[in-house]
Known about the structure:
Elements: E1 21-22, E2 29-30, H1 33-43, E3 49-50, E4 57-58, H2 61-68, E5 78-79, E6 86-87, H3 90-101, E7 106-108, E8 114-115, H4 118-127, E9 139-141
Antiparallel strand pairs: 1-2, 3-4, 5-6, 7-8, 7-9
Amino acid sequence: GSRRGCGRSRQQQAPPPAKPFTCLACGKGFTRSSNRNAHLATHLGQRPHTCGHCGRGFGHAPQLARHLRRHQVSQRRFGCGQCGRSFGRSANLSAHLRAHLGERPYTCTECGRGFSYSSAFLKHRRAHGLQGEEEEGQGRKRRRR
């Protein structure tokens, strides 16, 4: 039988939406000026979304929402047997345990410095002046044996 779609062949698919609003700092395009402006605030170090529990600021609302889960103890089911800190995801507990053990599986190929957490590693890479896709492949995670 034939496949029925929306009436368009692959060659006739609608083009992606235009992104006329461009970030002057990095060149990223946006469909709305409000999205570009919110993005630009992150380049300027602005963090307009603030946690009411601890005062930490975030550039985007979804980042704040993820952070707020840290304050909800009932959602942190994975506890560290060494220090009692708890986490909502087992992967976060695993990373935390690596820090206790002194393991640093993320290594900067620029300077050789090692990190227990991928987030700390990526922040370090930015200190070398590497942004976005340049970070990909610039460090490596050592395989566990």
